[in-house]
Amino acid sequence: MEKVLRTHFIPQINHNAILHSFYKTHNHHLTATTIWLKTLKQLTAPNLTQQPLCITYDTPGNGDVSLKSGFIHHLPHFEGTSGENPNQFLTEFHIVCSTMKQGNATLEKLMLRAFPFALRGPAKDWLHYLPAGTIDSWNTMKKVFLEKYFSADRANHLKKQISNILQDDGESLYEFWERFKKTCTMCPYHGFPEHDLILFFIGGLRKENSMMLTSACGGNIQNKTIAEAHAIIEDLSGSSRQFRTKSRTVKSIGSDIAPSNVELANDLREVKQLMKEFMQGKGKTQLC
């Protein structure tokens, strides 16, 4: 009778079944038997297995890439801050890699291997957090990098700056021309043809500079070719820079006349002086 009661009322514990159910619930891949044989210290020890990288490199063989400390030292750095230009960084990175390329490895392999060493701070963290196997080529790396740090919104904002650019008060022709070119280089994929860029710049000029440009062209600049219009703008902006330097030197000596009373006169004198220097230079060029 006692044997019958023990059989029917005392449950038999199946340890393997309990362990299997526990580790199945907690997504463990180890078998119940393996877990049962390990100590708690062994089970909680750090996993020393190397985690998969986000970049998939080619298997060792011909064309292996060897990075020297001198090469890494010359790489440009990118942290991912809002004030940095990702396109300029990629250009500088390409220049350094193409200049210092050695051995049989392709330039793309070299850049893919060297790219992590050029990142700093948040940008390096971003690369490390990418899923394993995300990057398998240099083109993919550039694509993922620009999607992160040169979004479509940022590109559209720069396109609007290019097409709606205006010369600021007190900004010389040279300073305006340099700012316009810098804005264009910040968005190399703007898609605007060269003739539209020139028209955007001309449309943003202040009245006195627009009149000076028209006089230098002998009429409407739209009658000039792209190369001719570009050359005229470069010449005028160069003269503007030289005259601006001379003007600032003279003003530094001191003047008793209030700037508010002579601002218009100074602008007119600047335009006349620029036109005089430009026409003299143009005449000398024709005589040669």
Compact overview of the structure:
The chain is built from 15 helices and no strands.
Structural summary, described in words:
The chain is an all-alpha fold and 288 residues long. The protein has 3 domains: 2-43, no CATH class; 69-150; 160-253 and 261-287. It is 64% helix and 0% strand. It contains 15 helices and no strands. The chain has helices at residues 2-9, 15-25, 32-37, 40-43, 69-73, 86-99, 107-118, 121-128, 138-149, 152-163, 173-186, 194-203, 207-217, 226-253, 259-287. Helix 10 (152-163) packs antiparallel against helix 11 (173-186). The chain is elongated, with a radius of gyration of 34 Å. The N and C termini lie far apart (129 Å). The relative contact order is 0.06. Mean pLDDT is 78; it is low at 249-261 and 283-288.
Which secondary structure elements does this structure contain, and how are they paired or packed?
Elements: H1 2-9, H2 15-25, H3 32-37, H4 40-43, H5 69-73, H6 86-99, H7 107-118, H8 121-128, H9 138-149, H10 152-163, H11 173-186, H12 194-203, H13 207-217, H14 226-253, H15 259-287
Tags for this entry?
288 residues, mainly alpha, 3 domains, 15 helices, 0% strand, elongated, disordered C terminus
Shape verdict:
elongated
Give the strand content: under 5%
Q: How would a crystallographer describe the biggest sheet?
A: none
* Radius of gyration, taken over Cα atoms and rounded to an integer in Å: 34 Å
List segments where confidence is low: pLDDT < 50 over at least 5 consecutive residues: 249-261, 283-288
- The class by helix and strand makeup works out as mainly alpha
Q: What count of helical segments does DSSP give?
A: 15
The amount of helix comes to 55-70%
Query: How many β strands by DSSP?
Result: 0
Order of helices and strands: HHHHHHHHHHHHHHH
Task: Average the pLDDT over all residues and give the rounded result.
Answer: 78
State the end-to-end distance: 129 Å
**Domain tally:** 3
